Amino acid sequence: MQNKVFSVKNIAKSFGSEKEHNYIEVIRDISMDIDEKEFIVILGNSGCGKSTFLKILGGIDSATKGSMELYGKNIGRQIPRNALKHFGFVFQSNNLLPWRTAEGNLRFNLNTMKLKGPEWEKRIDEMLDIVGLLDYKKVYPHELSGGMKQRVGIARALVHDPDILILDQPLGALDAITRKMLSYEILNIWKKTQKTIIMVTNNVDEAILLANRIFVFSNKPAVITHEIRVDIPVEQRNHEIANNQRFNELREQINEIVRATL
Ligand SMILES: Nc1ncnc2c1ncn2[C@@H]1O[C@H](COP(=O)(O)OP(=O)(O)O)[C@@H](O)[C@H]1O
Ligand SMILES: [Mg+2]
Are 182 and 171 in contact (CB under 8 A)? Predict the structure, then answer.
């Protein structure tokens, strides 16, 4: 039996109001139970509500309906402030602080959570090492490539030791080659850190490489149209995955689903 970390029950989200003629229903009804160390991937068309959903999961916004449970405890429609430490967030645009070095960006995150001391300083180095950037710790964001900036963003999201890492199209702004390379790095980070990860992508191959389970969202208002378990053992998830028969079956199946949702 796996431990259930996080549950989302019938989450809905709308903006505006009927009265002001700006009502928009973005998420209709989403439920999922996420186990410890799972890698969940969400696939869906642009504008279907993926970021809106992740913002609710990461405590940046609240749901209009439904509830969430963290370690079996009901936390309602918005993640309470004191539970935010359980989450780490990476956005498509890296939003690093330009006036702070790589390590300074990580330290800033720790400071906002009042985490100080030698053990946290050590953790800054450990996380920069995990993303392969320890030698760049004194370097400012403008001196880093797009891929390196995203790696600092991932290290920053991990530095306070969250349980759940939320990744909103973290590779979306990168060129194809960097993107592929970093997708393998995310796989390694998952193996090394054993975090629960929830990631949005629009790339089917990336989804199969990384996910335990893939949820496909409908167009807005979002509901889950498919849940696909990726039954490829972790040992087979490597640079040879494109030769894997199961990978190719899943790819065909999911591409078919994605085409039908367009
Ligand atoms: N604060 C907001 N106010 C009004 N509409 C919003 C707001 N945030 C998102 N939306 C709408 O929600 C829809 C889904 O947006 P988003 O979640 O960013 O989609 P995705 O990440 O899947 O591309 C869009 O139509 C967008 O216009
Ligand atoms: Mg988005």
Answer: yes
Sequence spans of domains, the chain: 1-27+53-75, 84-244+258-262
Say which CATH topology domain 84-244+258-262 has.
Rossmann fold (3.40.50)
Task: Read off the pLDDT of residues 187-200 as tens digits, 9 standing for 90 and up.
Answer: 999 999 999 999 99
The SS3 call for residue 120 is helix
Which protein residues touch ligand 1 with a CB less than 6 Å away?
A: 15, 24, 26, 44, 46-52, 220
Mutate to test the pocket of ligand 1, among 11, 14, 15 (most ligand atoms within 8 A of CB): 15
Q: Find the mean pLDDT for residues 131-150.
A: 95
Mean pLDDT confidence for 76-99: 91
Q: Does the predicted TM-score (pTM) go above 0.90?
A: yes
